[in-house]
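Q: I have 311 residues here and want to know how they pack in 3D. Can you give me a structure?
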Amino acid sequence: MKIDTVDVLSGLRAALTAPEQERDAQFARLVMEPLRGLWEPSLGRMGPQGAHVKDPVDVARLFRFYRPELGAQRALDALDIIERRGALRACEDAFEQAVRRLDPEAHGLTLPDLRFTFVLADPDGLDPRLDGYTGVGNVPGWSMLLAFPTAFNLPRLGAIVTHELHHNVRFAFEPAFPMTLGQYLVVEGLAEAFAAEAHGDQLLGRWTTTLDVATLRTLRPKFAASLLERDFNVVRGFIFGDWAAAASGYAPQGLPDFAGYAMGYRVVRAALDRTGWSVVDATYRPWAEIVRASGWFDDVDVDAARPHAAR
């Protein structure tokens, strides 16, 4: 297994400094083509929303990548900030350290070669709740950071890189689809616990830290009643909350923003505290074992779930 960086920030700079009439073609060649192995599988899972999107610039628009039509100078200024702050190198270091710490091969997993990429985001395309950064880690062999640099998110980029790499390893242990709500909670909770161990709780995203334990306790019965749910549109409603329902095509569940991230983190932290497992140990344990160990859902028979079976 090799680990590598697919550097599309340099490609974006080259595209944006090309003659204006050539920028889209250069963008397609230097940014989108190197990322084809990431975005093509993602399009395939998006159903009707992604079925007819073929042009690379349209794909970039759908995924909220920065692209030439948004103007050159704003992106060039952002790329200068990333370079001055050493953000790409810091993210590469976080990625490499995360691979070493998880050591998947020592735990019996054979992974494809792992690629990290930092893609400049369309700052007006990302929802403000994301604070200008997000990531993808559910495509085998790929971990993507999508960000537009700000004073708030620059110190936090390494933590989300660590989080997304954890997803890549975890999904090699327990495949992503189909996935119960309980499994999804554990996926996000483990990734955030792993990032917190590497970078500190203070550098986690707001999606994990906004809801306090008392609030999560009031939400616990609602989560408990759906812990074995497999309908992904329902599951997403619990993980992301109501804010993204209309844009993402799922029914609202009457939940605050990112409720599932905060719940998952508390569940995993409780399991680690009660058992003494390290987060690396827990990465290679079934989700139901982690939920049982947490004590958060003792009234739910998690053994009734078969995570790898069709609904």
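Q: Anything worth noting?
A: Residues 181-199 form the longest helix (19 residues). Confidence is low (pLDDT under 50) at residues 307-311.
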